[in-house]
Design goal:
There is one protein chain. The protein has about 200 residues and is an alpha+beta fold. It has 4 helices and 7 strands; from the N terminus they run E-E-H-H-E-H-E-E-H-E-E. It has a domain of about 140 residues. The strands form 2 sheets. The chain has a 4-stranded mixed sheet with strand order 1-3-5-4. Helix 1 crosses helix 2. The chain is globular, with a radius of gyration of 20 Å.
C-alpha cells in the first residue's frame, strides 16, 4: 500500500491586535522620507516577506505609478517609526477612500497613490499594523471617514532592533504659496521653496 504524503500544515493568519483609543492620533505625514540604511533595510525585508509576491506583476506594463510602490511603503514605514518613537500608542489618521489620494495634489509631495491603502491592508493582514477603519472624523462631524493605523507589537519589536540615524529622516521641500497684495506685490514671502527639515 502506497504511503500517503503528510498533510501540509495550514497557514495561520497573523493575530490581529485592536486599537483601543483611535482618537489619540495625528495625521499621517505624507512628506516624510528617509535615506537611513536601517529603515531602508527593514522596508525591503517587509516587502520581500509580505508584498513582493503579490506586487510582482502590478508595475509591469501599462501606466506606472508616480511613486514606485516600494517607495510608498518606505514613506509609510518611516511615518510609523516616527510616531512609534513619539508614543507607541499614538495612531496615524489617513483616508481609506480611493478618491482621497491624488498623486498630482500639491499637498501630496511624494506622489503617494491610492495603492498606499492596499499596502496598509497588507501590513495589517501580516500583523504589522493595527487598523481601525473610519473610526473618527472630528468632534460634531456627521461621518467618521478617517481611518487610524497604529504600530503593532510585532513591528515595535522590529523597530527596537534598529539603529537609526535620525539625521537621515527628513520632510521633503514643500511648495510655498506666494501671497500678494492688491497691487500685485508679494506680501513678505519671496521664496518658492521651503528648506528641507530634519526630523529630530
Amino acid at each position: 500500500m502506497q504511503e500517503e504524503p503528510p498533510n501540509e500544515p495550514a497557514l495561520e493568519a497573523a493575530p490581529q491586535e485592536i486599537i483601543f483609543d483611535s482618537q489619540h492620533s495625528r495625521p499621517l505625514d505624507t512628506a516624510v522620507w528617509t535615506e537611513d540604511p536601517a529603515l531602508i533595510g527593514l522596508v525591503q525585508e517587509i516587502w520581500d516577506e509580505h508584498l513582493a509576491a503579490d506586487e510582482a506583476g502590478k508595475q509591469k506594463g501599462g501606466k506606472k505609478p508616480a511613486r514606485p510602490y516600494i517607495e510608498q511603503l518606505r514613506v509609510l514605514v518611516t511615518a510609523l517609526y516616527l510616531v512609534w518613537r513619539e508614543d507607541p500608542l499614538l495612531c496615524l489618521g489617513m483616508p481609506f477612500s480611493e478618491g482621497a489620494w491624488s498623486s498630482k495634489s500639491r499637498y501630496n509631495l511624494l506622489a503617494l497613490t491610492k495603492h498606499v491603502v492596499v499596502l496598509v491592508k497588507r501590513l495589517n493582514a501580516a500583523g504589522l499594523v493595527r487598523v481601525s477603519t473610519g473610526s473618527y472624523a472630528a468632534p460634531g462631524a456627521k461621518g467618521n471617514r478617517t481611518s487610524r493605523i497604529q504600530v503593532s507589537t510585532v513591528l515595535q519589536k522590529r523597530f527596537e532592533e534598529l539603529i537609526v540615524n535620525q539625521k537621515a529622516i527628513c520632510t521633503v521641500p514643500a511648495e510655498c504659496i506666494i501671497l500678494k497684495t492688491i497691487s500685485g506685490k508679494a506680501a513678505r514671502l519671496s521664496s518658492t521653496r521651503t528648506p528641507m527639515t530634519l526630523v529630530a
